[in-house]
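Hi C.,

You asked whether I'd gotten around to modeling the 309-residue construct. I have! Everything is below, sequence then structure, no commentary in between.
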Amino acid sequence: MNVKTEIANSLNYKFNAELNIIFGSTDGYTSLITPFDQYETGYNIAFCVSKDGSVLNKSEFADLKKENKVFSNIIVNKYRVIFTIKGSMKQADKLNNVLEANKIIVNFFKENNYQNIDEYKNEFAETCICNVKGQAQFITTRSLEELRNIDSNDSVIKKEENVVRGIIGGILGSLVGVLAIVVIGQMGYIAAISGIAMGACTIWGYNKLSGVTSKKGIIISIIIIAIMTYIGVRLNYAIAINNELSKFAKPDFMKIFSSIPDVVKLEPQIQAAYMRDIVLTYVFTALGAFGIIKAKILEINNKNVFEIL
């Protein structure tokens, strides 16, 4: 039994595998539990609440965080408060930390007279967790129906995907990823952050200019990511070689860039390092971009979904 199933069973909550969320209610407080990273080393617990109908302030939870080491961070966004629970590599610790944190939070809410808030209507209500186009939201069944009707009316004027413009946008967005690869590479490192930048900015750029992103758009974005990742590594080596040669003469950068595969062959150690960096950069890009692409596919698959979970 995995830790998500154990958490759900221990709290008498439900687990939704498609959205990868655990949700339910403890003493009347609706909560949402999600992994805080793609490796699931720890979890976030979210609530949508208020004491007097006003939006939350992070200072309300300052003492709670200070007094309880199980919390590593607390984020507030209007009425939604997200408690990041201390992570662990041990399954038993993950389970115990979530159970302990959930109990502490609910007791705090009860002692301070917090109530559930419908985050669509921004009013006190008995909420449930609903899937609204791939996003888990704290709303009522009435709000869910309103959102469904609004989307149904908007469907008449929905945009069509402009693939050509999307490709241009994807390429422009991927330049941020290329920049990240080069900047980090010039410092002698390869990092997943460049993959996150490459994935997020490429998909954002494609969606921005295409008007909408389909699964075809995702495939095109992945191809752009693959090509631009290679260009990023090649550009990184071209800059390094150009900097060395500039100590002795004024080199032609474009000629260096175009002849990188031939230049690195002149020295076996440099060629080995070049191939290693290409492989590692692709691995880190895949790790970094995976979560972004997965989230976008989930959004596409749920674009017409409005349901109570």
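If it helps when you're writing up: The chain has two domains: 3-154, 163-304.

Thanks,
B.
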